[in-house]
Design a protein that fits this description.
By secondary structure, the chain is α/β, with parallel strands linked by helices. Helix content is 55%, strand content 13%. It has 10 helices and 5 strands, in the order E-H-E-H-H-H-H-E-H-E-H-H-H-E-H. It has a 5-stranded parallel sheet with strand order 2-3-1-4-5, sandwiched between helices. Helix 2 packs across helix 5 and helix 7 crosses helix 8.
């Protein structure tokens, strides 16, 4: 827990979950309860949008072919590259992650205490993300549930969903680092909200907020 001079106590919740787990839904519920949501993906997308902070480094590392005419990263081309080349994936992360971490730290520092929910898809994969969290919440569901949700939501074929899942931390790896597990398997939205509300109350009691 962080307490800056002249500010109230701040608790940082590292929120993660695989694609199709319902992490975004849980984040929305937490925001409705009064948490400040800091979305790592949104920061990352902004850094690779037209004239984003990461664009010069991406151009220098990958070349003009990976930058659109508008000056943004060509997401489709880059997605193909990093799926096919693990070294390229690491190189891209090395360019973007420091920008994202700095912006997360800036937004946290600007808060006057309270709960910051750090929506971190890659929390499990990186110690640099985990060390920013006071507690880690994992939104969990069976892998087959993830597959079916993403196929229905995105219209992707099963093979594409499974490729994304294979590139992410496994369900077991996420559960191994969890302080709190939010079960979003065969669960109604109302039941999920009740579960999150209960965990929110426990969090505030634990940290004296």
């Amino acid at each position: 827990m962080n307490t800056a001079p002249g500010r109230g106590p701040q608790v940082r919740v590292g929120l993660t979950g695989g694609i199709g787990s319902g992490k975004s839904t849980v984040a929305t519920v937490l925001a409705g309860l009064g948490a400040t949501l800091i979305d790592a993906d949104a920061i990352s997308r902004a850094s690779t949008a037209a004239n984003g902070l990461a664009i010069p480094a991406i151009r220098a590392r990958f070349g003009d072919d990976f930058i659109t005419a508008e000056g943004a990263m060509d997401r489709d081309r880059m997605r193909e590259r990093v799926f096919a080349d693990p070294a390229a994936k690491l190189a891209l992360e090395a360019l973007i992650h420091p920008i994202v971490r700095a912006e997360i730290d800036r937004q946290c520092a600007a808060m006057d205490g309270g709960v910051a929910v750090l929506d971190l898809p890659l929390l499990v994969e990186s110690a640099a993300w985990r060390e920013r969290a006071d507690t880690i919440w994992v939104v969990d569901c069976p892998v087959e549930t993830q597959v079916q949700r993403v196929m229905q939501r995105n219209g992707w074929p099963r093979a594409q969903v499974e490729a994304v899942l294979a590139a992410q931390a496994s369900r077991e790896q996420r559960l191994a680092v969890a302080d709190v597990v939010i079960d979003n398997g065969d669960t109604s939205l109302d039941a999920l909200k009740c579960q999150v509300e209960q965990r929110w109350t426990e969090l505030r009691d634990r940290f004296g907020l």
